[in-house]
Amino acid sequence: MASGNPTGTGRRKARTLFLSDIHLGFKHARVRELNEFLRRFEAEQIVLVGDIVDALSLARRAFWSAEHTEVVRTLLARQRAGTRLIYIPGNHDASLAMLAQMLRGQLEVHREWVHRTARGERLLVLHGDQFDSVLPVPAWLARLGDVLYTGTILVNHRLNDLRRALGRPYWSLAERVKLSIGTSLRYIEHFERLAAEHAHEKGYDGVVCGHIHRANLRRIGGALYGNSGDWVESCTALLENDDGELELLRWPLTQPTALRSAAALAPGAA
């Protein structure tokens, strides 16, 4: 395992940090927690795995706070300090016009990207919306899901604002509700299998994605499946340490489930 020796700023050093589904511009994005997280880590490269800016939400209802700006400024400051920034667009930010103007072309942009770990493993990195056409959802179920999701996110956001005011750590009610619904759980499992099989069939050792707002790190068949989660529901990220091992991080890091290492996952383990 790589050491957790801090830098001069007290940050943990990492080889690669994977972040997805931040949804800047969405009122209920947990950007305060993300800014706290970013202050704790320093990476040689940061891979943004889609839906970083929520252009769809901004088109419906403009929202942008100083904390959203702080995320952008932090990422750009890391880039100026030598961190490599790689951006994989998602379905909410497929139009990069606004993002490109805001960041002035300081990101490497790829639809898909192959990440080679320090262990020599080749991981296919994509957002995951590529699989939407293969995972059809009936229109009535999609509409019902949107209503339930919107309500759950609103309650989750207000609950965690209250918990924060009381000095309590972030806790994802939205994630708990999602995993308690059979239809949602089956969709997640189907997505994970599909993504892992897609990477394996193309000759890669695994896949890293986002999109479904369900962080996970496990082996499926012959492939490693990593999902960096989101910063609306779960407040999670994937990290590659200097030994090339992937770790699943959950904010706050004091939570018992804060860390899992890919090195400890046997093939086929959940």
Structural write-up:
The structure is a single chain. It contains seven helices and twelve strands. It is α/β, with parallel strands linked by helices. It has a single domain, classed as 4-Layer Sandwich (Purple Acid Phosphatase, chain A, domain 2). It has a seven-stranded mixed sheet, covered by helices on one side. It is globular.
What is the CATH class name?
Alpha Beta
What oligomeric state do these chains adopt?
single chain
Instruction: Let me know the CATH homologous superfamily.
Output: Metallo-dependent phosphatases
Task: Report how far the terminal alpha carbons are from each other.
Answer: 21 Å
Task: Provide the helix percentage.
Answer: 25-40%
As for the number of domains, it is 1
Q: Low-confidence parts lasting 5 or more residues at pLDDT below 50?
A: 1-8
| Biggest beta-sheet profile | 7 strands, mixed
The third-level CATH topology is Purple Acid Phosphatase, chain A, domain 2
Strand content: 15-25%
Q: How many E strands?
A: 12
Average per-residue pLDDT, rounded, comes to 83
